[in-house]
Design a protein that fits this description.
seven-stranded mixed β-sheet; alpha/beta; 15% strand; 2 domains
Length: 254
């Protein structure tokens, strides 16, 4: 089910042409995916299981951000992540506890941690025996929250899967329930779809005011959820204008 980094890169290029308004975001993501591919190759070829080994990729990431990153991201790297000890602390703190306090509690800190940890986490998840029918709203492998939902055809309908924001694991989850607060009343779970991309929708919750985007592969089998979720920025804008906040931001902090 998991799309390779090559497929994500190709899809980002395709969508940049389809949705010019998101072209700059997709170009930035594509550069990050190319970088993550090099990290993934290192992790796999050396069977890396210690997150501290990822610090050797920090110089290249900091250099990349100095050229293509937003100013606050680049400045954060220069001010806080030049020391290998700080780099290691950031990675271990995020891997063990997620975005909580210290550097991991900042948007820029989360960004740097996730760029490096995502390919590492995907590799570890690929080696694990994961219960994909877990009924919990967090990842059955790394316990991170979902960045999106995926609808896949099954029988006469579609089954919902949640997509992990860190290791990209997908696990089954009931369709009519909020993954943030557990609300099950359909009247409190509105859905919004834009004609521009009818295969991606906003699944909102009026109880906790959160939302998650769902990518319907029964309507568009070419979609790569991690990438298509980034491309559909107008849905984020609609949700925020209506008072909803995203359950979990994507790699770009959106």
């Amino acid at each position: 089910m998991k799309a390779s980094l090559d497929r994500r890169i190709t899809r980002a290029t395709e969508l940049a042409q389809t949705y010019p308004s998101a072209a700059s975001l997709l170009s930035f993501y594509r550069e990050l995916a190319h970088f993550q591919k090099s990290v993934s190759q290192d992790v796999q070829s050396n069977a890396i299981t210690d997150a501290r080994a990822l610090t050797r990729h920090f110089p290249a990431l900091l250099e990349l951000m100095s050229h293509i990153g937003a100013q606050p991201i680049a400045e954060f790297g220069r001010e806080h992540l030049q020391d290998p000890a700080a780099q290691q602390e950031l990675l271990l703190a995020y891997w063990e506890s997620g975005p909580v306090n210290g550097l991991t509690g900042t948007e820029a800190g989360r960004f740097f941690a996730r760029v490096l940890l995502q390919p590492y986490a995907e590799y570890l998840a690929s080696r694990g025996d994961i219960a994909l029918d877990k009924a919990e709203p967090t990842c059955p492998f790394c316990n991170a929250r979902p960045v999106a939902a995926v609808l896949r055809g099954e029988g006469d309908g579609a089954k919902r899967w949640l997509l992990c924001s860190l290791c990209a694991t997908e696990w089954q989850y009931r369709r009519v329930i909020c993954p943030a607060c557990g609300e099950e009343n359909k009247e409190k779970l509105p859905i919004y779809v834009a004609s521009e991309f009818d295969y991606v929708r906003v699944d909102a919750c009026d109880s906790c005011r959160t939302y998650i985007k769902s990518v319907d592969l029964t309507k568009n089998g070419h979609a790569v959820p991690i990438v298509d979720e980034i491309a559909t920025v107008p849905l984020n804008i609609w949700a925020e204008e209506h008072g909803y906040w995203k359950l979990e931001p994507n790699l770009l902090g959106m």
